[in-house]
TrEMBL record:
One GO BP: rescue of stalled ribosome
Protein family per UniProt: Belongs to the RqcP family.
Annotated InterPro entries: RqcP (IPR025490), S4_RNA-bd (IPR002942), S4_RNA-bd_sf (IPR036986)
HAMAP family: RqcP
UniProt organism field: Salipaludibacillus agaradhaerens
Coiled coil residues, start to end: none
Keyword Protein biosynthesis: yes
Function: Key component of the ribosome quality control system (RQC), a ribosome-associated complex that mediates the extraction of incompletely synthesized nascent chains from stalled ribosomes and their subsequent degradation. RqcH recruits Ala-charged tRNA, and with RqcP directs the elongation of stalled nascent chains on 50S ribosomal subunits, leading to non-templated C-terminal alanine extensions (Ala tail). The Ala tail promotes nascent chain degradation. RqcP is associated with the translocation-like movement of the peptidyl-tRNA from the A-site into the P-site.
Protein name according to UniProt: RQC P-site tRNA stabilizing factor
A GO molecular function held by the record: tRNA binding
Database matches in SMART domains: S4
Statement: the UniProt record of this protein carries the keyword Cell inner membrane: no
CDD domains: S4
Length: 87
């Protein structure tokens, strides 16, 4: 599945256009490599995402084309989450 679609379906980012923007700006890495919106992701991959003040490392557990809001949290495991100071 494409990275931008995964970020939307898993509800890590609410809109696919925002997911594309974040990936295009180089704020997402897949398995340590900078990723583009079209990068393919699969279960077992690790994502590093920089959301403004927060840096998250996530392992992909499931990949599906669509998900109910309640099921979205089962798509990934948070390995590390830290605040980033932009001083």
């Amino acid at each position: 599945m494409r990275l931008d679609k995964y970020l939307k379906v898993s509800r890590l980012i609410k809109r696919r256009t925002m997911a594309k923007e974040v990936a295009s700006q180089g704020r997402v890495k897949v398995n340590g490599q900078a990723a583009k919106p079209g990068t393919e992701v699969k279960p077992g991959d690790e994502l590093e995402v920089l959301f403004g003040q927060k840096h998250m490392t996530i392992r992909i557990d499931r990949v599906e084309e669509s998900a109910k809001k309640e099921d979205a949290a089962t798509f990934y495991s948070i390995l590390k989450e830290e605040r980033v100071d932009n001083n």
